[in-house]
Amino acid sequence: MRRRMIRLVPLFVLVACGGAGAAMAAGAATTAGTATIKAVNTKFGTVLVAANGHTVYRYTPDHKGVSTCTGVCATFWPKLLVKAGVKPTASGGAKASMLGTIKVPHGMAQVTYGGFPLYFFSGDKKAGAINGEGTMKIWYVVNTNGALVTKPVKKTTSTTTTSSSSSSWG
């Protein structure tokens, strides 16, 4: 049993390091200059994405102005960061009045929407991917009002029905 455990430890380290690399790659695209948040239409309705087209998420244990995703959590869910003092911008239906930042270490700031910190998912390898939606029932995409989106939007179809009825009143 111990021998088997020793063989598995390097595998776990490799997976953790790979996750960290993916997380750093996802976050690195928005750490310089400005962070633009825009709204795009998806199967979850109109949701927020970063300037690089990657979907942003909210973590339900967070509070307004407080990021609680640290350590291993932050490895898989990197923060949307800008340099301290940089004001994020809004486009395409995102609301500038909802954008802000909170302080994080190393001269950076985490972008917030409606006061809540925003994150990427390291499993979203390309722009437009929404693979983190609903993960562990604590990670969700965000709509333009700052609300969590917990399920896909139902498509509505309009149908016209004609009914004819006759009535005799006499």
Keywords, please?
three-stranded mixed sheet, 25% strand, disordered C terminus, 19% helix, single chain, 170 residues, alpha+beta, four-stranded antiparallel sheet
- What is the string of SSEs from the N terminus onward? HEEEHEEEEEEE
Distance between the termini: 91 Å
The coarse overall form would be globular
Number of helices: 2
Assembly context of the chains: single chain
Contiguous runs where pLDDT drops below 50 for at least 5 residues: 1-30, 160-170
Query: What number of structural domains do the residues give?
Result: 1
**Rg over alpha carbons:** 21 Å
Helix content bin: 10-25%
- Measured by DSSP, the beta-strand proportion falls in 15-25%
Report the count of strand segments: 10
Class by alpha and beta content: alpha+beta
Short précis:
This protein has two helices and ten strands; from the N terminus they run αβββαβββββββ. The protein has 170 residues and is an alpha+beta fold. 30% of the residues are buried.
Could you describe the 3D structure shown?
- The protein is α+β, with helices and mostly antiparallel strands and 170 residues long.
- It has helices spanning 2-28, 72-76; strands at 36-42, 45-50, 57-59, 81-83, 89-91, 99-104, 108-113, 116-117, 139-142, 148-149.
- The longest helix has 27 residues, at 2-28.
- It has one domain.
- The strands form three sheets. Strands 4, 6, 7 and 8 form a four-stranded antiparallel sheet that branches.
- 30% of the residues are buried.
